[in-house]
Amino acid sequence: MKTDILIKEKTKGKTLGVAGGNYRIILSGNDTDQNYSVIEMVVPPGGGPPPHEHPHMQEMFYVLEGEVEFKTTQGKFTMSAGDLVNIPFNGGIHCFQNISDTSVRLLCTVVPAGLDEVFEKIGVPAALGEFPPVPEMTEERKALLKQLDEEHKQTTYPKNYLD
Asked: How many whole angstroms separate alpha carbon 15 and alpha carbon 39?
């Protein structure tokens, strides 16, 4: 059990290009005994992940800057700075998309940790604020994504699933 206080400066943490965005893993599961992870997500205009669900994880998004549209099985919600979205355990299918003309910044907390591991496997190293292109959907990439869905007990749906 980790008992030392951990301080992370704003430039520290692993930064990855994920789903067209810039994700900085501020606290990984390794930092928290796998209890939770904290990820800063900078999402360019039009960016965001496809619909997905992970019933064994709770995910909270706090909007730091910008405007983002969250889609769930309950509908569409436009969120802006200061708003929070909580996807509880068994919370269902969800996704988000930056619908503004500028980048959106989100603080995402995941309980227990695990999505940080997924991001490390699908992401590419990036500098803060850098937006690497989304990797081509090759057969190898499809197999990796399917394997990660199975390992982490999550499901990914087509981009227009919640429309």
From this structure: 9
Domains and CATH numbers, the chain: 14-156 (2.60.120.10)
Give yes or no for residue 55 having a pLDDT over 80.
Answer: yes
Neighbours of 24 (CB within 10 A): 21
pTM: 0.92
Query: What is the distance between the alpha carbons of residues 12 and 61, in angstroms, rounded to a whole number?
Result: 20
Q: Which two tokens stand for residue 48?
A: 């965001």
Q: What is the pLDDT of residues 108-138, one digit of tens each?
A: 999 999 999 999 999 999 998 889 988 888 8
DSSP H/E element including 131: none
Structure tokens at 1: 């059990």
- What is the pLDDT at residue 134? 85
Q: What is the pLDDT of residues 1-30, one digit of tens each?
A: 777 899 999 889 999 999 889 999 999 999
Contact 42, 73 (CB under 8 A): no
Length of the chain equals 163
CA distance linking residue 31 with residue 26, whole number of Å:
9
Q: Which of 126, 88, 131, 81 is nearest to 106 (CA)?
A: 81
Strand order in the sheet with 124-125: 84-87, 58-65, 104-111, 37-43, 21-27, 14-18, 124-125
